[in-house]
Amino acid sequence: MALRDEPAWMRDRRWEAWRVLLDTPYPTTSDEPWRRTDIKALPLTEFGVLGELPKLDKALKSVPADWRRAQKSDDISGALLSADGVIVGQTATKDLASSGVVFTDMDTALREHADLVEPYFLTEAVRLNDDYFAALHGAFWRGGTFLYVPRGVEVALPLRSFTWLGKNDTSLTHTLVVMGPGSRAVLIDEYGSKSGRAFNAGAVELFLQDGAQLDYVGIQDWGRDVWNFTNERALVNRDATLHWIVGELGSKLTKTFLDAWLIGQGATALLSGVFFADGDQHLDLDTEQNHAAPHCKSDLLYKGALKGSARTVWQGMIRVAKTAQKTDGYQANRNLLLSDQARADSIPGLEILADDVRCTHGSTVSRIDEEEVFYLMSRGIGRVESEALLVNAFFTPVLDRIPLESVRGRLKKEIAKKTSR
């Protein structure tokens, strides 16, 4: 494994990840988390993990024009735009720069703010022994987004990070967010790629200290031949509030672990998600709401739609420790089938060790309502357009939680495209 120009502690962490990787079995359908997702066909050895970085002008040209425009929008406090591991655009308001907020790419953060990165990077949130792809990420990660918001600082407008995979066939980016006590921010983290076979093994780590508030929106719209694996985890401390919104639209196959840990009394995690699979896409989302402290609340709503011969898996778990009395936990997964060949697996779960809690869950898998389609068609609307309207209405309660109109609008357009295919 080649070493980069990094602090000694990061090199040591990479070597430790490499050792863990060598000792970690490759996932198979015999492993419970992978029982419904078979990755035998993944050509892992054919992807390069240390490819050459492209020149700046070539990297920038590969990025979609709407992304280039969005990073300069007036309705955000700052933006990062990267392509194939190269930063090709960066903006920030004067207020952001003077407030002590650090919003930069991970490589720059490692060089200039190592003291802020070292305590958090693959230590308490995502861990090297979480699974095979967490260890692989730890050994070979490159690029990503770092956000640090100091104590008591409120970032006035949302921040946006755009990660584009163009020429290269591998993405190993890392998102690390550290919210100081009493701070507030919104981060919209978007991923996309051109068509062509590619591989992503990413990680997201969110740290909310006492009283912090973070809205984190993670949207992946990878190309249709991308194998996508991520480990994402948030640690929410006393009286802090996390609103975590997920959008899963792209990739050939996705396996994502999304865990919220409520580790301080009075912590809150509001978890929202939309996913839409068509063709032969396979999306597998594994969520956990872990209550480790008393008087905490978690509320999850994930909605999915399927077309063609697509398959989705949502497996959710609320875990309540013995010491986490007065827990309020809820999870719901709703799925809408738009074809006879599509299949949605919805598996909620509870593991409760405390005796003074309120925890409930529910899941549904249903076909589109033909009476509703007929009602719209009887008023002169075609079937495809009728289905698109119903799908939009199905997703709207979650999409409306995204705190930026332009992002909501783009997602609605992408969902409409999938519905009409």
Unreliable segments of 5+ consecutive residues: none
Percentage of residues in helical conformation? 10-25%
Tell me the count of domains: 2
Main sheet record: 11 strands, mixed
- Shape estimate: globular
Number of strands: 21
User: End-to-end distance, in Å?
Assistant: 44 Å
Strand content: 35-45%
**Using only CA atoms, what is the Rg?**
21 Å
Enumerate how many helices there are, as a single number. Answer: 10
Q: How confident overall, as mean pLDDT?
A: 93
Structural class: alpha/beta
Describe the structure.
- This protein is α/β, with parallel strands linked by helices.
- It folds into two domains: about 10-265, no CATH class; about 370-420, no CATH class.
- Helices cover about 20% and strands about 40% of the residues.
- It is built from ten helices and 21 strands.
- The chain has helices at about 10-25, 55-60, 65-70, 95-100, 105-110, 115, 130-140, 370-375, 385-400, 405-420, and strands at about 80-85, 85-90, 100-105, 145-150, 160-165, 170, 175-180, 185-195, 200-210, 215-220, 225-235, 240-250, 255-260, 270-275, 280-290, 295-305, 310-320, 325-335, 345, 350, 355-365.
